[in-house]
Structures are given as structure tokens and as C-alpha cells.
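dumping this here so i dont lose it
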């Protein structure tokens, strides 16, 4: 439904924030309707495989700023003591490149000698409580990236405690643990999620056993969550206080970003909310997020503290949606019944083996509406199997090439002022000397409109022309000269008046929510300790596990996801008593013990660690 008029009275502008693996994808995201993009720099971004040079970042900035769209850069990993000067230089370079803000995890950044660039608090800061949100705001952060786990009521509480824009994820992959509070990869492999090197142990298959060594589940991806999809929740999230809608996926390729950004831009346009950037995006395809990679969708905890099913236990891959049932397998030819959609050559299909594993095949040739051929006879595909499509070749083809145009609409006035011809738009006026006035023999309005409207090599498009030259004849060359001067001056004016945000002042009286900090606070350097000490932390401050790994039984994941609830054995139900604790998850070389906090409906994933 459309937002009611009352909810729009504050005119709070809304930002659609898109991921960008590189400058090319950033530019396409803006073309397809993003109000801002976020991308990695050369180091210290939480996706080490999505790094970019300063030149790449600057290219994205140059394009985005034409539409008043912003570019944020992720410097959201922990920073080791010997890296502080390097990060200091990196931030200075990013500021010179015109970056709008940095997304930061490590509070040590607040004590670096850096330019006054705006700072956003990353979701890695683990902003679980209104008190933490208020503290980070008072430290000078301009925008807060909230945890994905929050309900609408919890978002409202965050909004009530703060007055800076709140950012929330709306689409993409979900971490099973609270972001910033996952150490499983670090403890098992030495690769830290808080350093952008997560080994994604949550996507592995596990066996689940109870205290009596009974096997409760075998080979299931019990920590692997579905993907987030809040396309139908934007209006309620706006009303709860969200100003920035973030799409996850800095490792995603171009087709994914084009499709998902277009879908969310279309929904925000339909809602009629004001936006933080300028221009109109026109896509040349109909977006469908179900056709891009996904593990099945969930809105996560947005509407309830205890959703029934949010995991993708059968596979961490994109299975797709069901399209047909196998009638027969005849060598390399597959016959189908109950076909729901038309297949295309090159489509990717999946199916389940008897073992429960997922296998896949590629359509080599569509033979008829109910049969197709593949290159090799598929193993394990049997009569009665359901076929799923996880790659639609025809849809993917629509996402290649130029798939969207973004432009600034212009309302232009052309008039005479004595010996001058004048052209005006958006508060900008240009003139040329043109004293010879001649009366036209034929009407000139349409011809002038065609000449002035030739804006194809610019970001502008003529919306309306107020032609006050009446029956005067003006050469097309003069109008072309005026038009070029106008677009050049508009671009110059945009650059000169671009509204940069700058770092907000740190409130010295701000008090940290806790007087002592465990390793969960992720303090990795002396400057971060200095920040906390100056804001009331007078007790112990433990080093981050990346600096000094804790020994013994360590909480490596803290989750709002409850495996018992997911599998129908909540401890508060009769079925819950059937499983004797402690429950364990095991995979080759990995053993986790599960602890359940029923009062707060949380789960802890524990691992034993002993330093060598």
C-alpha cells in the first residue's frame, strides 16, 4: 500500500544503498536507481575480495555525484596497531577522491589524524541496543547501520534514542551470527570475519547429536540461513524510522545488482517517498528478484521475535523455484510433466538426489514444450523428481548491455534580452550575442524544441520548453551553442554546490554503555582503547580475539536464530524435552556445542580453543 499522507509530512528523504564490487558496477547501480553505493578500498574492507584502487573509487564518485548520489567506502575491519598509519593515509586519499563517508567498525579511527570525512557506524559495530546506538551517535557517527536481527519495535526504539539516519539491510545474504560477534572462522582457520576473510563455516553441512550421542540430523546445513527479502516491508520500515535501505552483496556480479536495485527502486518510486539523490531511472526490463541468486527468502525477525522457518538447511546454494516434474530420463533427454514455465537453451536446473544433496544440470537444447536434452546423462535424476530453475538464460540475457538510463529532467526557457539570446534551467542562465532579429516565415516552436532537446550525450533530458521567441527565426547553430553552454554550466554548478556531509563533533561527555569490555567488543589497538577510556570505561578491556585468542570454551557465534525452534524442538514445547542437552554440531575437524538462552530467545555456538 502507499504510505499515508501523515507519514510523509516530515519529508524525510529515503536512500537506496547498493553494493558495488567495482566502479563499473557502482555506475550501473546508480543508473538503475541507487541513491548511494558502498564499495571497498584497497584494504580494510569487510570483503577482502572486493577491493578497489583510489582511481576506481574516484571514477565511481565522479559519475555518482552528477546525480547527487553518494559513494561510501568500507573501512570496516579491525585495525592492528602496526596498520594505523597505513589506514590514516588511506582515509586521506579517499577524502581527496571525494568519497562521501566511511563505513567504520574500529573506533580507533576516531583518534587518527584524518580529514573531516563523515563516518558511518558499520553493522560490525553490533548496535544491538538503543544505548549503543546513542553512544555511537554521540561519538560523531553520521549514520548507524543496524543489525539485521531487529524487529520493527526494536527499530522504533533505536529511532527514539537517536536523531541521525538509521540504515537497515533489506536484501541479500544473512549471517547467522550477530555481525561483528562471530569468531568461528577465526578460531577454526585463523581467517577472521572481522578482517574480511570469513571462511563461512555456517554454510557447511553438520550432524546434530544430543547428550546421549543420538544422531538427530545428518548432513544438513543447520547454520545456513535463507536470504533476506524485505521488498514488501519498505513502507513499514520507513514508518519505524529507517532512512537508508541497504542491499547486501559487494561480491555480487553485475546482473544481480542491476536486477535487485531496479526492483527496490521501483517499489520506492511506487510508494512516492522523497529520495536523497536526483534524477529519474528508466529500466529496460522488468525486475524479478526471484530470478537472481537466492537461498529462498525470509524477512527474518522484522515482524516477530520467533519466525517459524528462516534457515536453508537442504543447501547453501541457490536451488531456484520448481518448474516441472520428471516423467522419464532417456539417456541425455529428459521428458517432463506439469511444466509451469517455458525452458530456454542454457537454463540452469537443479534437483535433489536420494541422499538429500542437490545436483544440477544445464539445458543444452529444448526439444519441445515437455522435453529437453543435456550434454551428459544426469546422475541420480529419476522419474518423479522435481526440477527447479536457478538460472534463467533468457532473463539473464535481458540484463546484458545497456539496461537502464538515468537522467535529470530539464524545464528550459529560451528568450530574448535585447541583443542577447538567453536560455535558463534550474536556476542557471546562459547567453550569447545574437543581435540580428529576423522574422520566421514558418512556425519555429517544434524545430527549436527538437534542436534544444538534443541532449543525448549528456545526463539531461528536456521535459518542457517555454519558448518565448514567438515568430523570431534563430539559427539552429545558435540554439546548439546555447544548449551546450547550458549543460556545461549546469554540470559546473552541480560540482560547485555538491552538498558534502562532514564528520560530526564527538561529544566528550558521552558515556559508554559498559564500564568494562570483554573480547566481544573487538578492541584491536591502543587508539580504540583510548576512545573507550575517554568515555567512561574504567574496568578491564580485553583484546579482540584477532589480537589474543581466548582459551577454553569460547562463544564463537551469538545468534538470534535458534536451531531448536527451526527444527520444531523448542525447549518451551513438549517436543523440546525429547532432545537431551548438550546438543552438538559436528563436521570433519569441527565440533560446536550449543547453548540456549530461552529467556531472551538466543543461541550461543561454543567451540573449545587452546592456544598452542
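and the seq i came up w/
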Amino acid at each position: 500500500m502507499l504510505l499515508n499522507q501523515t507519514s510523509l509530512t516530515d519529508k524525510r528523504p529515503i536512500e537506496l544503498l547498493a553494493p558495488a564490487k567495482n566502479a563499473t558496477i557502482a555506475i550501473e547501480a546508480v543508473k538503475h536507481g541507487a541513491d548511494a553505493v558502498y564499495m571497498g578500498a584497497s584494504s580494510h574492507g569487510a570483503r577482502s575480495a572486493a577491493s578497489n584502487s583510489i582511481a576506481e573509487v574516484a571514477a565511481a564518485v565522479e559519475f555518482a555525484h552528477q546525480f547527487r548520489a553518494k559513494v561510501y567506502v568500507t573501512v570496516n575491519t579491525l585495525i592492528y596497531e602496526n596498520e594505523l598509519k597505513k589506514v590514516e593515509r588511506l582515509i586521506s586519499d579517499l577524502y581527496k577522491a571525494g568519497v562521501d563517508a566511511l563505513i567504520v567498525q574500529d573506533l580507533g579511527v576516531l583518534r587518527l589524524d584524518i580529514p573531516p570525512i563523515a563516518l558511518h557506524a558499520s553493522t560490525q559495530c553490533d548496535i544491538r541496543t538503543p544505548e549503543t546506538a546513542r553512544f555511537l551517535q554521540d561519538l560523531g557517527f553520521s549514520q548507524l547501520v543496524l543489525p539485521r536481527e531487529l524487529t520493527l519495535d526494536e527499530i522504533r526504539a533505536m529511532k527514539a534514542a537517536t536523531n541521525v539516519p538509521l540504515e537497515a539491510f533489506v536484501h541479500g545474504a544473512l549471517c547467522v551470527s550477530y555481525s561483528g560477534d562471530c569468531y568461528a572462522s577465526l578460531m577454526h582457520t585463523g581467517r577472521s570475519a572481522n578482517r574480511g576473510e570469513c571462511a563461512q563455516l555456517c554454510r557447511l553441512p553438520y550432524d546434530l547429536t544430543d547428550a546421549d550421542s543420538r544422531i538427530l540430523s545428518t548432513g544438513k546445513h543447520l547454520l545456513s540461513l535463507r536470504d533476506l527479502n524485505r521488498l514488501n516491508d519498505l513502507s513499514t520500515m520507513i514508518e519505524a524510522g529507517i532512512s537508508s535501505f541497504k542491499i547486501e552483496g559487494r561480491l555480487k556480479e553485475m546482473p544481480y545488482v542491476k536486477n535487485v536495485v531496479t526492483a527496490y527502486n521501483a517499489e520506492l518510486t511506487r510508494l512516492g517517498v522523497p529520495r536523497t539523490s536526483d534524477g529519474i531511472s528508466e529500466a529496460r526490463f522488468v525486475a524479478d528478484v526471484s530470478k537472481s541468486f537466492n537461498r529462498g527468502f525470509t524477512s527474518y525477525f522484522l515482524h516477530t521475535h520467533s519466525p517459524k522457518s528462516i534457515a536453508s538447511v537442504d543447501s547453501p546454494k541457490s536451488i531456484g523455484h520448481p518448474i516441472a516434474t520428471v516423467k522419464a530420463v532417456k539417456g541425455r533427454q529428459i521428458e517432463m510433466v506439469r511444466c509451469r514455465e517455458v525452458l530456454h537453451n542454457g537454463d540452469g536446473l537443479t534437483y535433489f538426489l536420494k541422499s538429500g544433496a542437490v545436483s544440477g544440470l544445464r539445458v543444452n537444447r529444448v526439444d519441445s514444450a515437455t522435453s529437453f536434452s543435456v550434454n551428459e546423462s544426469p546422475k541420480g535424476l529419476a522419474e518423479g523428481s522435481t526440477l527447479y530453475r536457478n538460472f534463467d538464460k533468457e532473463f539473464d540475457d535481458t540484463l546484458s548491455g545497456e539496461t537502464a538510463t538515468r537522467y535529470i529532467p530539464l524545464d528550459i526557457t529560451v528568450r530574448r534580452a535585447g541583443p542577447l539570446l538567453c536560455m535558463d534551467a534550474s536556476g542557471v542562465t546562459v547567453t550569447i550575442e545574437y543581435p540580428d532579429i529576423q522574422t520566421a516565415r514558418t512556425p519555429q516552436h517544434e524545430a527549436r524544441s527538437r534542436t534544444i532537446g538534443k541532449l543525448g550525450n549528456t545526463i539531461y533530458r528536456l521535459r518542457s520548453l517555454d519558448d518565448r521567441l514567438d515568430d523570431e527565426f534563430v539559427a539552429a547553430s545558435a540554439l546548439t551553442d546555447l544548449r551546450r553552454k547550458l549543460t556545461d554550466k549546469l554540470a559546473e554548478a552541480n560540482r560547485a554546490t555538491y552538498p558534502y556531509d562532514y564528520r560530526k563533533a564527538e561529544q566528550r561527555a558521552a558515556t559508554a554503555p559498559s564500564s568494562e569490555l570483554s573480547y566481544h567488543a573487538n578492541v584491536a589497538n591502543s587508539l580504540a582503547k583510548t576512545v573507550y577510556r575517554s568515555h567512561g570505561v574504567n574496568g578491564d578491556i580485553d583484546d579482540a580475539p584477532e589480537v589474543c585468542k581466548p582459551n577454553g570454551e569460547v562463544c564463537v557465534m551469538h545468534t538470534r536464530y535458534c536451531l531448536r525452534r527451526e527444527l520444531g524442538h523448542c525447549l518451551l514445547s513438549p517436543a523440546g524435552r525429547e532432545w537431551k542437552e548438550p546438543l552438538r554440531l559436528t563436521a570433519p575437524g569441527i565440533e560446536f556445542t550449543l547453548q540456549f538462552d530461552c529467556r531472551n530467545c538466543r543461541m550461543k555456538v561454543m567451540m573449545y580453543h587452546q592456544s598452542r
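Residues 121 and 144 are 5 Å apart (CA to CA).
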